[in-house]
Amino acid sequence: MAARRISGVISRSLSLRTLSSSLVSRGNRSNLGSEVRRFTTAAALEEPIIPPVSINDTQLLINGKFVDSASGKTFPTLDPRTGEVIANVAEGDAEDINRAVSAARKAFDEGPWPKMTAYERSRILLRFADLVDKHNDELAALETWNNGKPYEQSAKTEVPMFARLFRYYAGWADKIHGLTVPADGPYHVQTLHEPIGVAGQIIPWNFPLLMFAWKVGPALATGNTIVLKTAEQTPLTALYAAKLLHEAGLPPGVLNVVSGYGPTAGAALASHMDVDKIAFTGSTDTGKIVQELAAKSNLKPVTLELGGKSPFIVCEDADIDKAVELAHFALFFNQGQCCCAGSRTFVHERVYDEFLEKAKARAQSRTVGDPFQTGIEQGPQLSPSNPY
Question: What count of other Cβ atoms lies within 10 Å of the Cβ of residue 371?
Answer without folding.
Answer: 28
